[in-house]
Amino acid sequence: MLATIGRRLLTVIPTLIGVVIVTFLLTRVLPGDPAVYFAGPAATPQSIADIRKGLGLDRPLPEQFARYVNDLAHGNFGNSLSTGRPVATEITSRLPASAELTFLGLILSLVIAVPLGILAAVKQGSWIDHTCRVVATAGVSLPVFFTGLLLVYIFYYQLGWAPAPIGRLDAFATAPPNYTGFYLIDSLVTGNFETFRAALSQLILPAVTLAVFSLAPIARMTRASMLAVLASEFIRTARASGLDTRTVIITYAFRNAMLPVVTTLGMVFSFLLGANVLVEKVFAWPGIGSYAVEALLQSDFAPVQGFVLTMAVMYVVLNLLIDILYGVIDPRVRLEG
Amino acid sequence: MTETTATEALSIAPPPATVAQAVVKPENNSIFRHARYVMSENPVTGMAFGLFALIAVLALIGPYIVPHDPLASDTAATLAPPSLHHWFGTDQLGRDIFSRVVVATRLDFVIAVSSVVLVFVMGGFAGIAAGFFGGWTDRLVSRLADTIMAFPLFVLAMGIVAALGNTVTNIVIATAIINFPLYVRVARAEANVRREAGFVQAARLAGNGDFRILLAHILPNIMPIMMVQISLTMGYAILNAAGLSFIGLGVKPPTPEWGIMVAEGAANIISGEWWIALFPGAALMIAVFTFNLLGDGLRDLVDPQRRT
């Protein structure tokens, strides 16, 4: 098992190299002069020349690349133009907010989509099956920012159940001490249930928005793969041997049906991380997505570059975890690997 | 696997040129019969074709039939709820939302179509070349596609627009680039199975060069499956472009576009003016829904084994 993981880790290296090259090239394909771009609208020729020298833009391209990689290795993502703060610290401090939101969204969506998909497959053609199909088709068609706004209108303006969409906590609650950066966990650890409730009530709408968006592929894949497994011979044998339906479906079919679902998780993460940006904008969530959007609109390139790189590295790592999980679920992968 | 066998079964269709016209005719007929059969089996597909026609017509003549000027503001009637005069209400500048939603159809449609056409050309040709030539071409194209896939796609699109510059053209390019791997994968797999097919070998024996074989023999054969891919990615292309303009990229106000209109209405949602964001958002949803259904429907036509 360890050897398999080791080999899989090695395959990450070329991917990471590709990611770094692309994020590097993103700055170099700028139609204008990157130095002018980095210097901002109020630059003088002197300051542009300084920046060009400071960024090493007067050097040959391979040398610039080496410099970029060296900076990255030292955790230096450059400085934001508008705030002057280093991009790396800003991203580190905002990352937990995005991660908490994304994970809660994913968990919600798994909790709803997997049972829905299983039920739809077991009771094929029933109303659950039709619900599943409608939910799956509607889920992929709904623009995620639109779902978010609808939820805000219904649950904040009409019903008054949810707090105003103004970030992670309302003005009256105080942030919990920073252990993990996840407000839910930190407030529980310190036994501060007041803050826990406040943080959860802010988190629930954006998390549901993300869940609605990622439901569709998971439910669809669960249904399809359960149907395929239920039609296979070992299930027929298990049924013929007199095992009760519960055991057949949960112990036999479910574990086998989960494999393709775990594979789709990779795609789901790609959706989630992208949708995260839009959801953060709708709910004024202080995560890395809204940081990048603000920077983008001010033509402040270093934060955007750092953001793209961070997201890509996270996505590569998540895909790696999915592959390892796949090996845990399916012993055959271990043998072949 | 089932995908390739099914399409092959269908794409044996082009009969040799020596066969009389009479043989071709029932062939066409049966395709229409098949289409009618699929439609009657799945009325939703028929509805999707209808909606698609509506969207296309609105994109074409929308600006000429709207009751109000989409850019004209009316300070006397700001934030008016839907009424007989303003069917979808007015926004914070008193502009008629119905007119803006209808006029926006063209821009959204053009962005989606042009990005899909662009990626069809880029990804399609790169994929066919990779599948047909193999070797270095294949490794280069596949590595490029893998690298794009290593990014969360919307995030990469943001980065590309940021790098190339904040314009509508660059939104089209970014949307095309993030769809590139999908097209490469399909085209590569389809070209790969046909590489040693009898008709390709016959064409080669007859003295055709590689490029001629690619364009005249392989490309027409994988067209049906690529068309399905196009309509399947259209919905995603619209969503992606609208998402980019929602966060403020590409389309500049006051241009009517669904994504930016939802963004403009977002601030009014918490004070209860729902119509500003709802109608453009609903238009966006219907368009994406139509393209997704259309894609499923076309796939049923082309590839009966994957029918759901």
Helical residues, percent of chain B = over 70%
- Mean pLDDT over the residues of chain A: 82
Uncertain segments of chain B are: 1-26
In N-to-C order, the SSE pattern of chain B is HHHHHHHHHHH
- What class do helices, strands and sheet pairing of chain B give? mainly alpha
Main β sheet profile of chain A: none
Short description:
The complex is a heterodimer of chains A (337) and B (308). With 337 residues, chain A is an all-alpha fold.
Describe this structure as you would to a colleague.
The complex is a heterodimer of chains A (337) and B (308). Chain A has helices at 2-28, 34-39, 45-55, 61-73, 87-122, 127-141, 144-158, 183-189, 193-230, 233-240, 245-282, 288-297, 301-329, 331-336. Chain A has 337 residues and is mostly helical. Helices cover 77% and strands 0% of the residues of chain A. In chain A, α7 crosses α9. The longest helix of chain A has 38 residues, at 193-230. Chain B contains 11 helices and no strands. Chain B has helices spanning 2-11, 21-41, 43-65, 97-133, 135-149, 153-164, 168-194, 198-205, 210-246, 258-269, 275-302. The interface between A and B is large, with 53 and 48 residues.
Please give the structural blueprint.
The complex is a heterodimer of chains A (337) and B (308).
Chain A lengths: L1 H27 L5 H6 L5 H11 L5 H13 L13 H36 L4 H15 L2 H15 L24 H7 L3 H38 L2 H8 L4 H38 L5 H10 L3 H29 L1 H6 L1
Helix pairs in contact in A: 1-13, 5-6, 5-9, 5-11, 6-9, 7-9, 7-11, 8-9, 9-11, 11-12, 11-13, 12-13
Chain B lengths: L1 H10 L9 H21 L1 H23 L31 H37 L1 H15 L3 H12 L3 H27 L3 H8 L4 H37 L11 H12 L5 H28 L6
Helix pairs in contact in B: 2-3, 3-4, 3-11, 4-5, 4-7, 4-9, 4-11, 5-7, 6-7, 7-9, 8-9, 9-10, 9-11, 10-11
